[in-house]
Fold this protein.
Amino acid sequence: MTGRLGTLTTLYVTQYLGIGFITVGLTAILRDGGTSLDTLALLQFVGLVWPLKFLWAPLIDRYGSRRHGHYRSWLLPLQAGLVLTLLALLPFADPTRQLGPVVAICAAYVFLSATQDIAVDAVAVRVLSEGTRGAGNGIQVAASYLGNLLGGGACVLVYDRFGWLPAVGLLAALTAVGLLVVWRLREPDRVARVAGAGQAYRALLSVFGQPGCRWWTFGVVPLLYTGAGAAYALVTPALVDAGWSLARIGVVTGVVISAPAIVAGLLAGVGVDRFGRARLLVVGGAALAVSTVLLLPLLNGRAPLGATVAALCCFMAAYTVANVVLYVVNMDYSRPGTGGTDFTVLSSFGLICSFLAASVGLAAADRVGYPAVALASVVLVAVGVLVGLGHQRRFRAGAIRPEPAVAHVTPVG
């Protein structure tokens, strides 16, 4: 199991390296070169590919090579594609002058990364038992912050000291490590597969037919993600309003708060496996509510460096704990034969809730102020925890996911 967790760790980290570079590092580089904020805002839209990846997730579950490994046959070209798209950035040493091609390459990278994530999640569904899903999903969440730290922080430092070519080259080299891991991957034999593309797409909806899945997905998930997403959306504009420089905001929100989030993700993964989903949901939800309250001085315009960084670190660590629990239960509902589709559609719904919450939260803050939105977020998180506890009391984690994978599969052979 240690080897499997190591494989998942490497694949999750490498998929987020480029994402961290695009959303944090490249944004800082372009801004330093004089790119307008409106243009930088457009760059962030390439991230919208991730919530939409459920649209092609069934194809990943349906088609694959039995000889080379069903998901491995996807991961090999996808991981290679991630490396090649990063290498394609090498000629653009001054990205501000050739922004169109750079954004196009970044969009291609995000698409490949999102697709790779479907396949990695499907492998995780198959290799992680009920007792190790916490560790596996703790690694997944922590890996996103580690990738952000390396891609958005370390590579920017390399760029600042040595220039564009060494920075992008380092990014590509680190991502290539994942290609070596995929080459050595030996996934378990697939005893069942989806019979046709139509049946694969029906899995998008059939996942909600499992006991308690609608309660979890349309009750607990929106409450927690909306509460957390609306609160976090206030942070950057509040920091700007408090007089922080863009450089300080970028370093703190893109790099500094990633470290406690990584630690929190790993600890939460171990905690879920040891103490159960319900207890960690309470811990994460309570910490999220308290840390949101700690942000109130910032939201009222007072942002001393030490106290603000501490509050942001607490918030991100708490959000990470809650996120690990959400991912673990999503994996409980993911069936082995359609793991890529199931986990993707459940996780994508949470991402969509976060995007909507950020938009609604900012719009509401313009009318009622930052503190009012933050307090409403605390209420939503508290209600989400209560609804989640009710769900966990009624539906045992081990009884959620049927074995083998539902009626949409036919034996291989």
User: Anything to note?
Assistant: Residues 402-413 have pLDDT under 50 and may be disordered.
